[in-house]
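step 4 of 6: structure.
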Amino acid sequence: MRVSQIMERRIKVVVGKLGLDGHDRGAKVIARALSEAGMEVVYTGLRQTPEQLVKAVIQEDADVLGISILSGAHMELVGEVMRIMGQRGVRDVTVIVGGIIPSSDVEKMKSIGVDEVFPPGTKLDDVVKFVQAKVSEKRGRLFERASI
Amino acid sequence: MSELLSKALAGDELSIGRLITEVENLGTRSYDYVDKLMKLGGKAHVVGVTGPQGVGKSSLINALALLASSKGMRVAILTVDPSSPLTSGSFMGNRIRMTGLEKVFIRSLATRGFSGGVGVHASLSIEIMDGLGFDLILLETVGAGQVDTDVMHVAHTVIVVLAPGVGDEVQALKSGLMEIGHIYVINKSDLPEALKLEDNVKFVLSLKESEWTPKVVKVSALKGEGVDQLYQVLQQHREWLNDSGRREVLVKRRRKLLELLLLKMAEDSVRSAIRSSYVTQEFTEGKIGLKEAIEKLKMVMPR
């Protein structure tokens, strides 16, 4: 038997709600869409702290972190997530953010390491395609490194 | 020893997470890791938590993990969710009910085509966590019915969780779940129907004799009631399984691991043998009958 037949590498995603607002429909819809696209999605639920989300990413060895945030505190909270990830040596994770993000903040989010911001009304299919493309790109890099 | 393995042994969570990914993907190096860790393992108390959907397995595990880790135990939680047979994706929501577990390592695993409620990936992950020195491994199976009883082969202690309303049909469960538990938890014990459920469970359990008399514990995982008692019963069962008993469970667990892995390999190669032969096509086009198709498939099937 060829090794490739039994090797299965799937895309693992952690989706969570950052901050104190209690609306998680958007996050659940995204999580569902990604799982229906064949990904293994861990949904962490409401009111996660940056620390909790990063811990989930580390323990689940996620390829993707999807953050939903509606509270307006996205710069602080997502910034904190990115800072903790950097501190713990978490690299090659695709970070996507959804929710209410003013368009003027999108570039700022990207400058701190967020891969893409999806505003309300984004087609689910676009999110799926973005994630698939980004993860293959990052995995290519990951495999070349071949250290661990 | 590889860098990944030594970092994981030193407790680096990033490396532990990656190690489990390696075994989940059944990657080439993963068997090496498992071999090395199996030599170090065999000490952890593996507790399987099973029961129908919606009875509160995750909340119960959360409460147990909190208590155990407050007593200084190093705790790992492995939680298994079904993969969709259509898309092979999985929506895993057990982490939602697990909070306050800063010192606990939690990993969600998808069944990836395995039935039986556990699967090869969870079996391998148990070996990993055991070898890495975790004291208590809590394994949450998929919401189980009568046939999802693999947990009895991989765990030292099986906790069957039931709750009023969901597990009322105890009679219907007796041929599966009601035979494998060492401890039966009546969760959501604050609900009025809990007493009736407890009576029913005790009745069904009384019909069968075994060396270890299964214990029934009432718990309200949300309120934190009965968790202390459950923890004590858990320790009792561990003590009851003396050294030779634990050894026996370990042997059974590793045999099951190999069986699951072989079944997986066999299934994969049967599928590819069938896919690459023309027999299916000939049969579906009506060129050959069922009898001939089976004869021909036997020829292409690996021995």
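step 5 of 6: annotate
 - The mean pLDDT of chain A is 87.
 - Chain A has one domain: 11-135.
step 6 of 6: archive
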